[in-house]
Amino acid sequence: MSLTSVLRTAARGLAVFALAAIVGSTSLAARADTIKIGAPIPQTGPFASDGGVMEKAIKLAVEDLNKAGGVLGQQVEVTFFDIGDLSPDKLQAAAANLIDRGKADFIVTGYGGFGPDIPAFCPQGVPFMHNDAFTSVVDMMNSMGCTAIFNASDVESAYGKVMFDQIMALGHQFPNKKLAIVHGPYEWESGLTKAMADAAVAQGWEVVVNEEVPYESVQWQGILSKIRDASPSLVHIEVLDAGLTYTFLQQYFDSPVKGALVNAGYAASVPAFGDVIVQGKVEGVLGMTLSAQLPGPEGDAFVKRWQAAYNETPPWSLAAQLYDEVNMWAAAVAKAGSASDHPAVVKALKEMSYKGLTGTLKFDDRFKIPTSDASQPAFLFQVHDKGLKTLMIGTKKTSDFALPDWTK
Questions:
Q1: SS3 state of residue 271
Q2: In this structure, is the dihedral angle defined by the CA atoms of residues 386, 157, 140 and 325, taken in order, positive or negative?
């Protein structure tokens, strides 16, 4: 199934408020001495790269909890369910297997369907934490009265403004105030870039190109011609498909606009983009991620722990975030005194300010975490020396921007 079909299916799922439960894979082993949690993640299909990070982060958090004595003296057991293409039927099957059959007391995922996950898990009343980061998903959660579902991040419009403000704070002398935007047709892409454009206009910029591209029939030549003719000083592409993003960049580098910076958005932080980074093919490109481990002893220890477990550096897109979510739930259970008392755990989550690797996790009255320096700051980074270098964490500058050779 193509990425376009996946996202269209997910978008249709936003309107679905009741679906029949489907029974799928093997249930969790029933052991009275364990607390069981479930993780509906994409282990196959177009999102499997991110799904692999989700799985590693959740496993690592559970392993560390168990080594420390578990939760309330009980060991934690996790079962994963493959939601593949993020379709409504996969999410319903996940709910049936993980909760109805598996008796999970907590559900955690990086992103669980961009909408179909809400009607699948809302009726269950089991604490469910995700990072869909869509305004429409947060709206659905609240309109359905899903008091046990938590979006452990902010939404796309907030990140669009933050990202533009971060780029402006780099100290770069732009040759003009012209912005070119290229984005995909789905909510993260269109919502984020609209907020970015609004922030730019408010600061006296002109949006000279604003092109929406269809995934399955995109032709970069015409769009690149418009960008070159407009001579912007900032080019932003927000297309979740890392392959399409890379194709755009390679064709852009054939004849880049003199003096223009290029921001590849969230796609630059996902593991699937890592191959072109380590090959040195996108040096100097900017990117962002919603959250990552903050610098300091705890963040450094997490990196070492991940490297020891997986022989790799933790990806910035989801690794520390999922580790935090599992541990925040564990802290809520400890406060509630029981993992199976779901209302008490939900109450603890609502009231809690949890200091984690990515910042302070505190849900607002819409069950999301507003991005800010005081909560969970977003990261702006640059591809540098075949890796990622942090430039901004929230409003704080962490290192100097290096002007790429291709801009000169």
A1: helix
A2: positive
Q: What is the DSSP letter of 216?
A: G
d(CA 387, CA 315): 11
Residues pairing with 209 in the sheet:
180
Beta strand 107-108 with 128-130 is parallel
14-53: burial string, b at 16+ Cβ within 10 Å, e else: bebeeeeebebeebbeeeeebbbbbbbbbbebbbbbbbbb
- The answer to whether the CB of 373 falls within 8 A of the CB of 394 is yes
- The model's pLDDT over 96-134, given as tens digits with 9 standing for 90+, comes to 999 999 999 999 999 888 899 999 999 999 999 999 999
Query: Which helix (H) or strand (E) is 81 found in, with range?
Result: strand 75-82
Pairwise CA distance, residues 263 & 382, whole Å: 9
Q: Against a cut of 0.85, is the pTM above it?
A: yes
Q: Alpha-carbon distance 224 to 218, whole Å?
A: 12
* Dihedral class, residue 271 (left if φ above 0, else alpha if ψ from -120 to 50, else beta): alpha
DSSP 172: -
- Cα–Cα–Cα angle for 252, 47, 275, nearest 5°? 45
What's the rounded Cα separation, in Å, for the pair 117 and 368? 16
The Cα 264–Cα 365 span in angstroms is: 32
Closest CA to 206 of 238, 230, 170: 230
pLDDT in tens, 316-336: 889 999 999 999 999 999 999
Percent of the chain with pLDDT over 90: 85
**For residue 7, is pLDDT > 60?**
no
Q: For residue 374, what are its two tokens?
A: 């005081």
Tell me phi and psi for residue 349, to 5 degrees. -65, -40
Residue 63, CA atoms < 13 Å, CB-side half-sphere: 9
